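User: Before I run my own analysis I want an independent prediction to cross-check against. Here's the chain; please return only the structure tokens and, at the end, one sentence I can use as a sanity check.
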Amino acid sequence: VQLVESGGGLVQPGGSLTLSCASSGSTLYYMNWVCQSPGKGLEWVSAIGSDGSGTDYADSVKGRFTVSSDNAKNTVFLHLNSLKSVDTALYYCAAATTFDYWGQGTQVTVSS
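Assistant: Structure tokens:
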């Protein structure tokens, strides 16, 4: 399966972005969002069940980020609100509970 992320960019603190992860094929996967900040390791951010239910979030993003999906388009979204400079990172989607498949990442930069 191929995953393609999009939607990253430069945004001011307090701003919003929506990231997309489009999955090839027809299989619906449990999907994770993972980020990597400069000089740091990978950090799990959020996940959503294959049927679009059962969302989960890291404590650092609860109340600010929302994960959703459009199963008809086999696409998962991560809505980033109230962005902070610490949210600056390369954001990946990774399919399956065992993180079997990864996209190439999309860069989010939060800066004034």
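Sanity check: The mean pLDDT is 95.
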